[in-house]
Write a structure and sequence with these properties.
Elements lengths: L2 H7 L6 H12 L24 H10 L2 H9 L7 H11 L17 H14 L10 H12 L12 H13 L7 H11 L3 E3 L2 E2 L18 H11 L5 H18 L24 H8 L10 H16 L49 H4 L13 E4 L4 E4 L6 E4 L11 H5 L3 E3 L13 H4 L5 E4 L13 E6 L3 E9 L2 E8 L8 E10 L3 E6 L3 E2 L17 E5 L2 E6 L2 E7 L7 E6 L11 E10 L2 E15 L11 H6 L6 H7 L2
Antiparallel strand pairs: 1-2, 3-4, 4-5, 5-6, 7-12, 8-9, 9-10, 10-11, 11-19, 12-18, 13-18, 14-15, 15-16, 16-19, 17-18
């Protein structure tokens, strides 16, 4: 048995002590990578857009989210001294491990949030252990961000937390005026129903930064730590969380997985940290979100990640990637220490065993929320878990600044908790493109491909579908309707595209990328029956494996496209390194007339990890969806 199998995968993660053991299992391996003075943790040699010192500060700081929570909950950790020494030496200008003073928009600002949190909740075990001169250099370094320019994003919360920590230790560098101004500005990001943008008006990013990674998490933690000093704002944040939770629950499936969407997926189980922050804030949520349900949502998600060996190196440190090491999915701000943002999910360790979160019996995903479709107007998402497949349909979001692979992270048509999403590993072939759940277009005979990134005019219409426009080139416009699964065909969703083009185009529309191997580890082979394999013909493509079934079919005789089950280039999908993608490929001549194409997309994930797809999928596959009458009349199918 490997080290990971004995320490992580065997952990049942049902109790506070189990969660503590998992955290300790993540903290202990960092000792071998910690500098002699404790101020830097060096986990690898890949680069970021910021300097190496900041990257190693990131390795030092991010685990503190977990360490501080553990200490605040009354436990001790034998390695705490490493971080105390690090605070002393990292802020000492005369020490070789000095972190460096902060400049405008400095990555060091990001790492101040964990430090501020630690000073707020674990003062006695961190701050009080520092000598007076070390306290002075730490508060001066932390307060050094108060007169610096910051990005107009969730980053402002990092300065709020720095000042919050300074206030809790009685520091002279605490700037109450600066903190209030930051909070007032952050509140302008709020758009209603609990949701906040990750930036000012015009920004259309409502991803995990608007929830677990930053904004909602920060609001809830602040609402507990500052409730005496800022009660009105804290109650508003709690009210936002009550509303937001009723939407956010739909991003999780019955197995505990969260739907991968947007950037920073390497933060992994930080995706569920909102539920831990709910508990930390002592916030009771509306039905059916009982304490037992909240506990299940978080612990099932963390438990899932203990079962993913590819998320860890053999020594127990975290890899850069999602389910396995994968630099194709990363952003230019992902250092080897970045994944430890996941330590935010250990915040429930700060709570006593008697807290309702720990005292409650873990409950499954609420029955009343299963087999449902929900339209979310703020993120422009349609959420579905009909047929046991949790996924979302998306149009209208895009990153407001350059982000690697942003078309894949925000512009796809669907994102699945089971099948994840894929990113390009090149742009020369469809196999390289990672074109799942997108309509890829080529105007050069297939030499290069373009996928939707900037979506325009997106809106939910009449609670029926999500409609949007895309303008890939001058003279080319694509209008798209995304129609969620219907009760009669719960494993299918429908896409319709109207294409108007002044040039000849090739289109490639992908379904869900799926695990592409047989039981013996060899690649899937063609098979027409219910056995594991691939199947393709004109207008149809399908793949069946232990992960389930994924397929795509032409609907409505609108376009005659060739079906395939394409073996994708390795390491394009976030969830599985070797995937197959059911795809429809068509050619469209330049014309003043409109071209219409429609497809049904089938996805049935396996829940029991069987050899092949679970029995009964063929009947669901054979019952094809119909295009609704309202849109059929318009399309003239």
């Amino acid at each position: 048995m490997s080290w990971l199998e004995t320490s992580f995968a065997s952990n049942p993660l049902v109790s506070k002590s189990d969660l503590r053991a998992f955290l300790v299992g993540l903290l202990d391996p960092l000792a071998a990578h910690t500098s002699p003075g404790g101020a830097r943790i060096h986990l690898g040699y890949t680069a970021t857009h910021y300097d190496e010192t900041a990257a190693q500060l990131e390795g030092f700081s991010r685990p503190i989210w977990g360490l501080a929570s553990l200490l605040a909950g009354g436990a001790d950790y034998t390695g705490t001294r490493r971080w105390i020494d690090g605070f002393k030496n990292g802020t000492d200008r005369n020490h070789v491990e000095f972190w460096g003073d902060m400049r405008d928009k400095d990555q060091r600002m990001v790492e101040c949030s964990a430090i501020g949190f630690a000073l707020s909740v674990a003062k006695e075990k961190i701050w009080d252990k520092l000598e007076d001169n070390a306290k002075s250099t730490l508060e001066d370094w932390l307060g050094g961000m108060n007169d610096k320019q910051m990005p107009n994003t969730n980053w402002l919360w990092f300065r709020v937390f720095a000042n919050l920590g300074l206030s809790k230790v009685g520091s002279k560098r605490y700037d109450a005026k600066r903190m209030k101004a930051d909070l007032d500005h952050l509140d302008t990001f709020y758009i209603g129903d609990g949701w906040s943008r990750d930036g000012p008006e015009g920004v259309v990013q409502l991803d995990y930064y608007s929830s677990s990674f930053a904004i909602q998490y920060a609001q809830l933690v602040y609402s507990r730590l500052a409730q005496d000093e800022d009660p009105k704002r804290c109650e508003e944040y709690r009210n936002r969380a009550r509303r937001f939770a009723q939407d956010f629950v739909h991003y999780f499936d019955e197995e505990g997985r969260a739907i991968p969407f947007g950037r920073s997926m390497t933060y992994r189980f930080a995706m569920s940290s909102f539920w831990g922050a709910v508990a930390f804030a002592n916030l009771e949520l509306p039905a059916p979100l009982t304490w037992g349900v909240v506990k299940g949502l978080q612990l099932r998600n963390v438990r899932y990640w203990t079962q993913q060996p590819g998320a860890y190196y053999p020594d127990g440190t975290l890899t850069i990637g999602f389910n396995y090491p994968n630099h194709n999915i990363t952003e230019n701000y992902n250092s080897p220490g970045s994944p430890y943002w996941c330590c935010k999910s250990f915040i429930t360790l700060a709570l006593p065993e008697t807290h309702p979160f720990w005292a409650a019996k873990e409950e499954p995903y609420p029955a009343s929320l299963r087999n449902t479709v929900k339209f979310l107007k703020n993120p422009l998402h349609i959420m579905s878990n009909r047929g046991g497949h949790t996924f979302l349909l998306s149009s209208g979001q895009q990153c407001s600044y350059p982000v690697k692979q942003s078309a894949a992270k925000y512009g796809k048509l669907a994102y699945s908790s089971a099948f994840g999403y894929s990113v390009p590993v090149g742009n020369g072939t469809l196999e390289e493109l990672g074109g799942d759940n997108t309509l890829a277009l080529s105007d050069d005979g297939g030499e290069t491909w373009k996928c939707r990134r900037a979506t325009k005019e997106a809106r939910i219409e009449a609670g029926k579908w999500l409609r949007s426009m895309w303008y890939p080139w001058d003279g080319v416009e694509i209008e798209t309707w995304l129609i969620p699964p219907q009760a009669e065909t719960p494993l299918w969703h429908v896409r319709i595209h109207r294409i108007k083009t002044n040039r000849k185009l090739i289109s490639a529309e992908g379904g869900f990328a799926i695990y592409g191997q047989r039981e013996d580890g060899r690649a899937l082979e063609p098979s027409e029956g219910e056995e594991v394999g691939t199947y393709e013909k004109d207008g149809e493509g399908r793949a069946t494996s232990k992960a389930g079934v994924s397929g795509i079919v032409e609907l409505g005789e609108l376009g005659k496209r060739k079906g395939s089950a394409m073996r994708m280039d390795a390491n394009s999908n976030l969830v599985v390194a070797r995937s197959v993608l059911p795809t429809l490929v068509g050619e469209h001549e330049a014309s003043e007339d409109e071209v219409w194409i429609a497809a049904g997309i089938f996805g049935r994930p396996n829940l029991d990890c069987a050899v092949g797809a679970a029995p009964g999928w063929q009947q669901a596959w054979d019952k094809r969806p119909e295009i609704g009458k309202a849109i059929a009349d318009y399309v003239k199918v």
